[in-house]
Amino acid sequence: MAGLVTDMPYKVGNAIFFNIVLYFMTNLRRTPEAFFVFLLFSFTTTLVMSHMYRTFGALSKTLVQALVPVALIILSLIIFTGFAIPPALMVPWFGWIRYVNPIAYAYESLMVNEFWDREFPCAGFVPQGPGYDGVGELSRICSVVGAKAGLDVVSGEDYLRLSFGYERSHLWR
Predict the structure, then answer these.
(1) Residue 5 pLDDT more than 90?
(2) What mean pLDDT do residues 128-154 have?
(3) How many domains does the chain have?
(4) Which terminal Cβ of the chain has fewer Cβ within 10 Å, N or C?
(5) What is the pLDDT, as a whole number, of residue 85?
């Protein structure tokens, strides 16, 4: 308990200062609601992972004994977050890791927080190139998941829903 209490001011300060710089440097959504949701989930994930490390440290006799299981668990948590392998492409017998993964819940919430109710301009269309200059509006489509024929933008909602299966109702899960 003493370690937890003494680490808390450092974790709060680190979460606030690091995440403020990260949030504005990466030009994420500039609304107070989105910023504070980002800050809350980042801080909560920091605490959850810190407590996971403390749990394995308490169960082990030495630091070396704690590092092996923690390294394997953090590797599996990161791989099955949904970023490296989208949820639809996960091997079914490893998909359960996503349901016990606190990083996956935070990642999904942060993605929904950033992409929902936004439209993103298309950078490239299909077909394109020589000979396709006169193609009509409805005969071309943006080359991103969730695009609709004839539109120059992609809905963030459609992208999240079709790429990852994320919904707005999952934000506070």
Answers:
(1) no
(2) 83
(3) 2
(4) N
(5) 85
3-state secondary structure of 155: strand
What are the b/e assignments for 61-79, b being 16+ CB within 10 Å?
eeeeebeeebeeeeeebee
Backbone angles phi, psi at 119, to 5 degrees: -125, 140
Cα–Cα distances (Å) from 144 to 31, 130, 137, in that order, read 26, 21, 16
Query: Which residue among 91, 113, 135 closes a domain?
Result: 113
- Could you tell me the residue range of the domain that residue 151 belongs to? 116-173
User: 67-114: per-residue pLDDT in tens?
Assistant: 888 999 999 899 888 888 888 888 888 778 888 899 999 999 999 999
Q: Rounded to 5 degrees, what angle do the CA atoms 139, 142, 148 make?
A: 70
- 8 Å CB contact between 37 and 113: yes
Nearest in space to 113 (alpha carbons), one of 25, 26, 49, 31 = 31
Angle 23-26-31 from CA coordinates, rounded to 5°: 50
Which residues are 154's β-sheet partners? 120
